[in-house]
């Protein structure tokens, strides 16, 4: 945000149950389309044309929002969108997203026993490598563990999204799709399904980086984002 705010009007909303946004207010299990509904006032404030930048769950939301607002979204910047449903639709389990499927099951089992710390360890270590949770500074752990209570909800939204992968061929806009070469197979499996259907996509692969590179190596990822926006703005 600090980097882009020098040249752009930057809006950074939180999804349901994250940051300062209230929790999902319904007994119905959340869908990605509900997350887009939440963002409608932000899109209205952004104006007639804007670019969406998203990582992981946020990148999946951005992809679907671009389909809903084809006249408004002028470009997409995505770091490993976790739209796992497109993998399951292509090949029934067992498949490339079994890793995250199993990590969510393990985290959910820990939550059922009231152990948020263990749930966070299952989830964070899956995405960032074994030992990452133990290495996380103590002051940073409580908000992360608190957010991991949403892991089943996130998983349900990402695994049950009904939009067929072929629909994304309608996106006639520039797309920057960033991939960490050391990311788990679950992220790479999604990219192998999505990339062939995106019409105007530029792919950046970061050697030695993983799924959480926007947090672990922000200077590297942010430089590519700024470069791309400079080309498409």
Summarize this structure as a short list of keywords or feature phrases.
Rossmann fold, alpha/beta, 233 residues
Structural class: alpha/beta
Distance between the termini: 16 Å
Structural domain count: 1
Q: For the record, what is the CATH homologous superfamily label?
A: Alpha/Beta hydrolase fold, catalytic domain
So what's the CATH class? Alpha Beta
- For the residues shown, what is the average pLDDT? 96
Q: Main sheet, how many strands, which sense, barrel?
A: 4 strands, parallel
- Looking at the structure, the CATH topology is Rossmann fold
Shape label: globular
Show unreliable segments. Answer: none
Strand order of the largest sheet: 1-2-3-4
Would you kindly provide a written description of the structure presented here, covering whatever features stand out?
The protein is α/β, with parallel strands linked by helices. The chain has one domain: Alpha/Beta hydrolase fold, catalytic domain (Rossmann fold, 3-Layer(aba) Sandwich), CATH 3.40.50. The chain has eleven helices and four strands; from the N terminus they run αβαβααααααβαβαα. The longest helix is centred in the first third of the chain and has 15 residues. The protein is globular and about 50 Å long. The model has no long low-confidence stretch (mean pLDDT 96).
